[in-house]
């Protein structure tokens, strides 16, 4: 379990693998309370894709019960808890439905976040925070057709960024809908492939990183394969995609099954070599040279180029520890 430090710089890195579960999952509060889900850093109770329209009211009732159970527990000892809503109007409805118990939530996951609804979402989250002592965060998901469509993509992403920058203190992660993008084109990766091999999706993801990663932690797309055997193809595929997530600037990942969490958690840990290099880059003070060999003499470290990378590595190590080589 990741300890909550109230350090705003670390918080976006603490989301890690965000586990989705339908809000109708009535046993979930009990499992969270008893630490029954290994490596659980954050969980989203979903009222959107995971719930059919005719079951929405029932799901909302379940959410209310789950959140009121969690509100009785010490938030410091819990993973981050989020609710995924459907629309700005729905967000307001859930805010009112949860009342006092909303304090058990770390925040809300906002699907299909785009210029059509961004301002409205931003207004609501600012409003909710006006009357709170502890921050309530949002995690917008960029997954709509306007973000994918090449003729509007840049302006769409920049418009979304402009809105998020105004409420930056409430934005915990920017998330991407890999499956939503894939489904726009009728595409799907197999267990032996990864999302970066789908050219059109890779381009969208690269543009999202281009626009958002300088100011926000951007989380990787869902991997839809899972199982119990940690040496099977689903696990190998997930590890490979996590490597590529990291290489491309994504931090953390959406998870759809608890079996994925230990692999995601492990991938969040920097290697000893990266950590040593990061530390030396950040405490560089010989005053002369801006270039030096790495701790293991295998590569070059350059203070100006690698500072941002080094800060990220040190933050990840602080939250997840260092990988045993």
SSE arrangement:
Elements lengths: L16 E6 L5 H6 L8 E5 L9 H16 L8 E5 L3 H11 L8 E4 L7 H13 L6 E6 L2 H4 L4 H14 L7 E3 L1 H7 L14 H14 L5 E2 L13 H16 L4 E3 L5 H7 L4 H11 L8 E3 L6 E3 H18 L5
Parallel strand pairs: 1-2, 1-8, 2-3, 3-4, 4-5, 5-6, 6-7
Antiparallel strand pairs: 9-10
Helix pairs in contact: 3-4, 6-8, 11-12
> Helicity level, as a percent range?
40-55%
Residue stretches low in confidence (pLDDT < 50, at least 5 long) are 1-5
Number of helices: 12
Largest β sheet strand count, sense and barrel closure: 8 strands, parallel
> Cα distance, first to last residue?
22 Å
Number of strands: 10
Shape descriptor reads globular
Order of helices and strands: EHEHEHEHEHHEHHEHEHHEEH
Strand content: 5-15%
Biggest sheet, spatial arrangement of strands: 7-6-5-4-3-2-1-8
Give the helix/strand class: alpha/beta
CA-based gyration radius: 20 Å
